[in-house]
Specification:
Elements (H helix, E strand, L loop, with lengths): L1 H30 L5 H6 L5 H10 L6 H13 L13 H36 L4 H14 L3 H15 L19 H30 L2 H8 L4 H29 L3 H6 L5 H10 L3 H29 L8
Length: about 325
């Protein structure tokens, strides 16, 4: 118990340090953006007075360390800033885009866990046999197809040629749950590569565990094969699988830009693209911080799960 508490304390301290690093990195990267945001926001023919007013509103006339301190204090109080284009709080942009992105992520994870673990266990049970070779070949082939190419292919076949599904989510707004047909294609694209990587990780972990000495001795002493597979081998495969699942959830929640752009879904990825196009620096900064903190939290949770199932195997940072 003391070892677990020490591990959790170390990981929490590392998570705090990573969060601070994310804030500093986001500020430094937005400072390094080429061009003058005030001139870009002033229009094609910027008036010097308007440029000066925008620079004052953006606090660009102040030293960088003062702007960093003010922004960090606001973040500590939950204030992500205000959009320079619309005057709306950045938090409203995030809350508007979070719903569609969260819905896509939740549906993908609900399907990913049983499919990924099921295919991995199936391949491990038949390691070296035709079933294992078929699962490994199909998952490798699907993983090799980029999301954009697969998305275009599915639109062309299932939407345009067969007419089974709508090609995009145009006209449905943010209430995508009321139009489930519009979710099928994006979820299929989002599911394609993660399910392949998760299945291969589970398969590899279980094959290694089943070949270990404790599994061999368990079978020698008459322990049923199902118990060896699911009570002993599968938990050892959960540590890397949990970290892969955390990376997948992070990828899903942090705005899958390609998929959202392809299917015109108003999620966080679309919000980020629009903010970059409009040089709306506070929105870009706010989204980047939210994405970074989500990454830190999800990886922290994955490390704790991995330590719980395989405490001697170590965890990835």
């Amino acid at each position: 118990m003391s070892a677990l508490r020490s591990f959790v304390a170390r990981r929490l301290l590392l998570g705090v340090a990573q969060t601070v690093a994310v804030v500093l990195l986001v500020f430094a990267l937005t400072e390094a953006l080429p061009g003058d945001a005030a001139v870009a926001l002033a229009g094609d023919q910027p008036d010097p007075a308007r440029v000066a007013a925008i620079r004052e509103a953006m606090r660009l006339d102040r030293p960088a360390h003062e702007r960093l301190a003010g922004w960090a204090v606001g973040l500590a109080h939950g204030d992500l800033g205000t959009s320079l284009v619309s005057g709306r709080p950045v938090g409203q942009y995030i809350s508007d885009g979070f719903g569609p992105t969260l819905l896509l992520a939740a549906l993908t994870v609900v399907l990913l866990v049983p499919l990924g673990f099921g295919l991995g266990v199936l391949a491990a049970r038949h390691a070296g046999r035709p079933v294992d070779q078929l699962v490994s070949s199909v998952t490798l082939a699907v993983y090799a197809v980029p999301e954009f190419a697969l998305g275009v292919l599915l639109v062309g076949v299932l939407a345009l040629q067969l007419g089974w599904l709508p090609p995009t989510a145009v006209g449905y707004g943010t209430d995508l749950l009321a139009h489930p047909a519009a979710l099928v294609l994006p979820v299929l694209v989002l599911l394609s590569r993660p399910v392949c990587s998760l299945a291969r990780l589970v398969r590899a972990g279980m094959v290694d565990a089943l070949a270990a000495s404790y599994a061999v001795h368990a079978r020698r002493y008459g322990v049923p094969g199902a118990r060896v597979r699911y009570a002993h081998a599968l938990p050892n495969a959960l540590a890397p699988a949990a970290q892969q699942l955390a990376r997948t959830v992070d990828w899903l929640l942090c705005g899958v830009i390609v998929v959202e752009a392809l299917y015109v879904i108003p999620g966080l990825g679309t919000v980020l693209l629009d903010a970059v196009a409009e040089r709306d620096v506070p929105v870009v900064q706010g989204l980047a911080v939210v994405f970074g903190v989500l990454t830190v939290v999800l990886n922290l949770g994955a490390d704790l799960v991995a330590h719980r199932f395989a405490p001697r195997a170590g965890v990835a940072a």
